[in-house]
Amino acid sequence: MIFCVEDDTAIRELMIYALISAGLDAKGFAEGNAFFEALKEEKPELVILDIMLPGEDGISILKKLRSHIETAYIPVIMATAKGTEYDTVFALDLGADDYLAKPFGMMEMVSRVKALLRRMRQAAGKELICIGQIQMNTADHTVFIGGKRISLTLKEYELLRLFMENPGRVFTRDQLLNQVWAPDYTGETRTVDVHIGTLRTKLGAWGSYIETVRGVGYRMEAKA
User: Fold this and answer.
1) Dihedral over alpha carbons 131, 121, 75, 38 (to 10 degrees)
2) pLDDT digits (tens, 9 = 90+) for 157-208
3) Smaller CB count within 10 Å for the chain: N or C?
């Protein structure tokens, strides 16, 4: 399912028609509120998101998508006005996966959608990570322990993923800040300790897999 967020009715209907004609399911939304209501019922494979929208603009919507664990990794193509380089670069920096400069052709749109979906499906081939009883599916961003799903915030999930992809590696607090938050993050390293603490609590008995390396940082290893 492709979600198209575009306030121009004629353009939105044309986009949906082109996608359906190409064999893809698609739904359209004129503004952010309707889009977020639909997200509660169904998670799309991809979102085409116009920057210029009534009410909440596309940049703000993109920020919300990337800040929540359940929507953080839905691929997004931003539709930007031709010549607005700043908006395009800003959107890509915030985590957009591709962009379309308006006015764009429907064949170009369908081609970009299919190409991005192919890349995402290929990446999904390496989707399952397991350490001990902890199982992470990176395709749908879920974590299970002994078959029971646990709920994590985006930062907790990203910390756990980093540890699980690098078992036994010691990370300093600064390295964790750089990789999970941002290289230019100005907060204190205490932020890492707080998030590690809540992550351990949610992992329950398996929280001990995340070890404190005194004077250095943290690492993750399964216990025998």
Assistant:
1) -90
2) 999 999 999 999 999 998 998 888 866 555 667 889 999 999 999 999 899 9
3) C
3-state DSSP percent of the chain in helix, strand and coil, to 5: 45, 20, 30
Compute φ and ψ for 202, nearest 5 degrees: -70, -30
One-character DSSP codes across 30-81: SSHHHHHHHHHH---SEEEEESS-SSS-HHHHHHHHHHSTTTTTS-EEEEEE
The residues near 119 (Cβ < 8 Å, ≥ 6 apart) are none
Environment class of 186 (CB within 10 Å of its CB; exposed 0-12, middle 13-18, buried 19+) = exposed
Give, as one character, the DSSP assignment of residue 95.
T
The identity of residue 67, as a single letter, is: S
Digit-coded pLDDT (tens) for 27-86: 999 999 999 999 999 989 999 999 999 999 999 999 898 877 678 778 899 998 756 677
Q: Which tokens sit at 55?
A: 């009410």
How distant, in Å, are the alpha carbons of 131, 151, 179, 214 from that of 128?
10, 17, 21, 30
User: What are the beta bridge partners of residue 212?
Assistant: 218
